[in-house]
Amino acid sequence: MEEARKQIIQTLKTYQINKTPLPEIETDQTPASSESVERFKFEFERVGGNLIEAKPKEIYKKLSEIISSENIQKIFAENFEKSIDEKIKDLQVSQIITQPHSEKQLADVDASITGCDFLIAETGTIVFIHRENKFKSAVLLPRIHIVIANKTQIISTFEELVKRIDGNFDSIFLITGPSRTADIEKVLVRGVHGPQKVYIILT
Amino acid sequence: MRNHDLTKFKENVLWALTNQTLRKNLNRAITHTLSKRIEVVSELTNWEELREKAHNIRKHTIENLAYYLENFEKKATENGIKILWAKDAAEARSYVIDIARRINAKLCVKSKSMVTEEIGLREFLEEKGIETVETDLGEFIVQLANEMPSHITAPAMHKSRDEIGKLFAEKLGVDFTNEPENLTKIARRFLREKFLNADLGISGANFLVAETGSIVIVENEGNAGLSTTLPKVHIVIAGIEKVIPRLVDLTIFFKILGRSATAQRFTSYVSIINAPRNKKPDSPEEIYVILVDNGRTNLLRSEKLKQALYCIKCGACMLACPIYQRVGGHAYGSIYPGPIGSVLTPVQFAFDEALILPFASSLCGKCHEICPVKIEIHHLLLWLRHKAVEQDFSPWIEKLIFKLWLIGMKNHKLYEFGAKILRYIRKIGIKPELKNWSKWRTFPEIAPKSFREIWRRQESK
Ligand code: SF4
Predict the structure, then answer these.
(1) A74 touching B, CB under 8 A?
(2) Among the four residues B175, B276, B279, B352, which has the most C-beta atoms within 10 Å?
(3) Does residue A17 belong to the interface with chain B, where contact is any CB pair within 8 Å?
(4) ipTM higher than 0.90?
(5) DSSP state of B209
(6) pLDDT value of residue B181
(7) pLDDT digits 0-9 by tens, B324-383
(8) Within its chain, how far is the Cα of B333 from the centroid?
(9) Which of B67, B162, B229, B246 should we substitute to test contact with A (largest number of A Cβ atoms within 10 Å)?
């Protein structure tokens, strides 16, 4: 290993030249505005997302509607602030998991309910930065993902995200619409390995 | 048939050109992607500016590759990721098997990665008794068919739904269906089991960020997200050219990569992974990154060919290439087909037989025009042809013809004399025996009078 490393680095150094400067990249984007909210809605729906606008007190009602229309039995729910947690507890489902003990258990779940860190208007993307244990599997394994988010979380671009996190993060996961493929005759199919549907309840 | 033999390139081409189903499948996939691409590219008014920036970032990085790799290594190691260096395919494979044996791995899930194809990792692990499953739908299809991918981002684009339906019925023992939706469901069910039981996850990387030590993986299906979080151990295999300087560079690459690869504004999933579980909860316990050379430094040695290392493996040049459009990826007999593949294959793998590939180009420059990092692929192809001829690559008859042509072109009397003789030969009805050429084309008629003769007559009137 050391041998290979030395050899590769040495060869690379022989050919190292300093000719082309690294281009500057602007991250000063216009901050999010009411237009960004519209843009987010447009882009998120364009990639196949389901957007539901709601007042904070309607969250329970909207959740219940999704749960019955999608025939959801078991859910995984992240920890939210107390008021939302209590509403989730009241949902008419057969099982609510908040602390998954295994991936197999998560694979059995119909839907996951989570928050998020940001929403990117330009691309309709949901941003997660460093979450709880087994978070990614909890979001990818069930067939439905429901995000509860607030308009204040909308930022304008990916550039703005990079600027805000300022290199200070553990891991980032970006979701733009449902899981998809076009591997068979370019026909778009949703829900390959990840969720078939992504909902956002936007307050 | 896992692989078309490169040494039989001409036969492969004939086979492809006469295969009606293949032509139809290719045509459908390529037309669809290219027309969608135009839509998502033209809505960016600064596309050319983005390409220019991307080109310069890649150029700067390749010029300072040692510096950025060392930085990446330092940062990633601090984050708790283990870095390994491999000179060639064998060394890379041996690291993987060592890790797999140490953790006693029985089942490995793989997400799409060209470099693992390049080093023959799946076959190797299977040989060693570790079940290894491709989890990207396209790759899964070609694995079942025991073929290699025919395109670097759309591996199964050469297959029709009927062919895939038959394949699934035969290999997975399910009832025949040719509905893409149902076929996808079957794959999901089959692969779900594998995901949940795998002890090793292997992926490639689209980018390695030197500044933060991050591994960046973009995908659409969610299989990479699962392959890199469910198993205890995650191994990333990446070519040494994959590094980029800063996190902010991603703002450029994300705009051009999705659009060029799959005609998408943004891919469904992006994972930016910084550390294993001991540092952060939602990851495997151990993450390894194997940095693979395997001939990449050969490209670096040539001032000209260096550019090929800017490639971000989007596959757009293949779709744009009039040759690829007709013969598809398998005919090239290389894991990297199409225009950029015809540069990489002979040089990276120092494979003399592959010097025929640069000739499989019309030098029209469409590859350059579409390339998001602006590689002058057609210039590189021309230059490689030159090298090939220098190495006695072309047959003696071709050399003789070109020698005579050169003498003739330098002297206009000789040229006119030569042209007269050729016209005379045609006039008395002798047809040249150039079967290989005229079998697929109509032989051009030689005009009864040359342009110069007509001109002279006009002048004298
Ligand atoms: S050469 Fe350019 S167009 Fe071809 S795969 Fe590489 S980046 Fe894409």
Answers:
(1) no
(2) B276
(3) yes
(4) yes
(5) E
(6) 96
(7) 999 999 999 999 999 999 999 999 987 788 888 999 999 999 999 999 999 999 999 999
(8) 12
(9) B229
